[in-house]
Amino acid sequence: MKKLYTLSLAFALALTASATQHTAEVKAHPSSLTPLINKLEAAGITAPEKAPVKALEADEDIWTNVGTATMVDGWVCPAFGDDQFEYPYEVDLERSVSNPNKYRVVNPYKGKWSLAFLNSSDHDGYIQFDLSDPDHVTFDIVEAGLFIANMGSTFEGFYCYNALSYFCHHYEMSPEEVIAQLGDECPYTTYKDNVVELNYVVLTEDNGSQKTVYDACVGNNDDPYAGIRWDDTNMCAKIILPEKLTDGVDAVLPATDNGVVRYFNLQGVELAKPAAGSVVIRLQNGKAVKTIMK
Questions:
Q1: Taking the domains of the chain in order of start, what are their residue ranges?
Q2: pTM (2 decimals)?
Q3: pLDDT at 5 (0 to 100)
Q4: For every residue of the chain, which 3-state class applies, written as one string?
Q5: Model confidence over 140-199: pLDDT tens digits?
Q6: pLDDT tier for residue 256 given thresholds of 50, 70 and 90
């Protein structure tokens, strides 16, 4: 009970300091990212007058399970005052059929997460990322499936991503445009040796003071693209992919198949004669579509 009280207090203080009292300021200029925002503005790049709170479209991609990843949670654990590196845990990992470089961890704040007993969310959530550029990994802005109801948190529907993805969405720029403007002053998520790592950079400001800019940041249902971080906390994070990924549908998806139609179940197993009424994945000409057999 004492541990729960300590966590609750730390979380409440973090939310109060970073989200409630300074909501407008944090949305416009996330504290850790302010030096980089200033650099963009000095180059004449400005965000829309209002933060781009866009309607998030439902994910219509087809995903297949490819094993178990290990999470070192730098997005939420720091808000509780917990050292995320002391509490790594396993999560299900899925890969996109249409883009084999895109992955997502499933329900990162349920299951084996050390604080899962605090989560009141009643729907699935994900942390979704694209490894097409291993030196500049990007994240999709999707719900992570976290709601701390008994703490009065307004942060229902956490969205976990990184600085590069924040700038892309907030300023409506491509990753290449952001990288060209910010160079090595921006922290970038990297993928190496099966590890997706979110780290930090230390910048020296004009007044000589140093500012730590963490890569990990979050949004909420009020503003998924807010780019909020917790003050005075270590927000480094890792997602460790399995050394050998389980074969999924994308493993058999050819660049061209000369129009031949192939069917797979949702686990990626090819079906010679799918039963009528079954939900399958139909592959043809390198494209995958989820359908119901007639």
A1: 2-240, 249-292
A2: 0.75
A3: 28
A4: CHHHHHHHHHHHHHHHHHHHCCHHHHHHCCHHHHHHHHHHHHCCCCCCCCCCCCCCCCCCCCEEEEEEEEEECCCCHHHHCCCHHHCCEEEEEEEECCCCCEEEEECCCCCCCCCHHHCCCCCCCEEEEECCCCCCEEEECCECCCCCHHHCCCCCCCEEEEHHHHHHHHCCCCHHHHHHHHHHHCCCEEEECCEEEECEEEEECCCCCEEEEECEEEECCCCCCCCECCCCCCCCEEEECCCCCCCCHHHHCCCCCCCCCEEECCCCCEECCCCCCCEEEEEECCEEEEEECC
A5: 999 999 988 765 545 567 899 999 999 998 888 999 999 999 999 999 999 999 999 999
A6: very low
Closest Cα partner for 32 from 221, 203, 222?
203
At 19, list the tokens: 């989200």
* Contact (Cβ atoms closer than 8 angstroms) between residue 187 and residue 197: no
Dig out the tokens for 293 from the structure.
């057999």
Beta pairing, strands 210-214 & 216-219:
unpaired
Encode 264-289: b = buried (16+ Cβ within 10 Å), e = exposed: beeebeeeeebeeeeebbbbeeeebe
